[in-house]
Description:
The complex is a heterodimer.
Chain A: H1 3-9, H2 13-21, H3 27-45, E1 48-51, H4 53-68, E2 80-84, H5 111-118, E3 122-127, H6 161-168, E4 174-179, H7 185-190, E5 194-197, E6 217-222, H8 225-235, E7 265-268, H9 270-273, H10 279-294, E8 298-301, H11 310-325, H12 327-332, H13 339-348, H14 353-373, E9 379-383, E10 396-398, E11 404-406, H15 407-411, H16 416-421, E12 425-432, E13 438-445, H17 450-462
Parallel strand pairs in A: 2-3, 2-4, 7-8, 7-9
Antiparallel strand pairs in A: 1-3, 4-6, 5-6, 5-12, 9-13, 10-11, 12-13
Chain B: H1 6-16, H2 22-46
Helix pairs in contact in B: 1-2
Amino acid sequence: MRPESRSLLSLSLLEVGQLVANRQVSPVELTEVTLERIMELEPTINAFITVLADEALQVARAHEQMIMAGYFLGPLHGIPLALKDNLYMQGVRTTAGSKILADFVPVADATVTARLKAAGAVIVGKTNMHEFAWGGTTANPHYGPTRNPWDPSRFPAGSSGGSGAAVGAREVFGAIGTDTGGSIRLPAAVNGCVGLRPTIGRVSNHNVVPLAWTMDTVGPMARTVADAAAMFQIIAGYDPLDEASSTAPISDYLTSLDRNVQGICIGVVPTYFFSHLQPAVHDAVRAAIETLVATGAQVVEIDIANIDGNISAQLTIESAEPSTFHQRWLRERPQDYGDDVRILLEMGEMYLASHYLQAQRYRALLRNEFISAFNQVDVFICPTLPFVATPLGATTVVIEGDEKEDMLSAIMQYTGVPSLTGLPALSVPCGFSPDGLPIGMQIIGKPFAEATVLRVGHQYQQVTSWHTREPDLHA
Amino acid sequence: MEPFEDDVIARLEQIADLSLSATERRLLAASFRPLLLAANALSKKMSDPQYLSISPAFRFNHLDPEEVQT
């Protein structure tokens, strides 16, 4: 790859978007260097299930003509992006990482897909994911595992592992993921990029293959918070095709980024979020909070009395709902699921209705406690997950001492809280382990306060440079 | 709760109208037990009289703007 192409790929979405707007770079050139990078790295990273080379170049040429004719659609115009492969894209196979949907070709876009297309984005491919989004490792038995660009012997987390790895490896300028129990935030953290889980209902789930109806969200993954805000501005907002989407008005997420954090009150729950971590994660997130304090924020320690039930509630709900969706396939084609997902789906059928309803009642209890706490704080900050990327194929993880813990329960310890409470949560790079593996912090906000969580994350990135580091991947 | 025997899973399998292999029954017997213990504990907690007024939190139709605290 030419050095000047590699330097283009190091720019942020907004930076390269400005070059496109100024006609200094063509969407065709951007798409060509993106596709070249994808082809070079895919044997190592395996972030994509489907690469749309010819289609993307065709679209890029059309956008080039539009821009030359004076029609500019905005910061995403002509920018190569990727979609997680559970978002419908008209005429393009949408597998959801599964064998069961391997040949499924939608006749219509997801609303998010359509909005990105209307904004001029160039969709270069559909990214790999944990099968049906029901897992956190992207160890996909049908399309191969995705690998972490910072250390390809390690996992990219999941379920949006392909999107996270593609952004982290500078294969694309941004990607869309989905998040039920942490599936945007976890890969964002371990791949060294930004990921936003929006408030439940803020972004349409129309024509997205569901995992758990009451917890599913769609959100951006990008190199910087500002990039994520630009993508979020396009996809957020009410959708009449998704009756669960909210009519609450959207904000101007980009303009509000530049307000400083003077007076912002950060809540910390030390007894839960900082009690069981790998030391490097603990130190990095604590240091990040101190950095924000140095820029004018304040910290308040908060006790959330009933936070300890959240993992059980999340697993109950996130088991029962997918199992219901998959009932027919699980009986007709059980052999076509990967072993891990099949076992989870079978298990989800064994909870009692009362277990599910009690978990949903607990959800209301936990949400009420957080809403009450927001009378004292503006955001909560905690680690995104308690450990750094584990070796590929690991089903257990060591957090403290020698004790091996089940991967699924361990990985969702901190991401589960916003998932259950429906609150927006942003993962932002905040450091690296001694082994050079990325660490992410999670900024949790009030309902529909994405502007605030994005602003806190952006202001943090104005005084730090973790997000500018790139993995050492020489093709 | 005693460790599950395979027949516990077999009975659940029958109720759910599933068809499992012996290996799957063994895997599920080991995996499901701790989750069931936790779910039972949460159910017991939420059955406490102080929480009687709380209804399930699934909202398929979303919060109205005036319900939103920003």
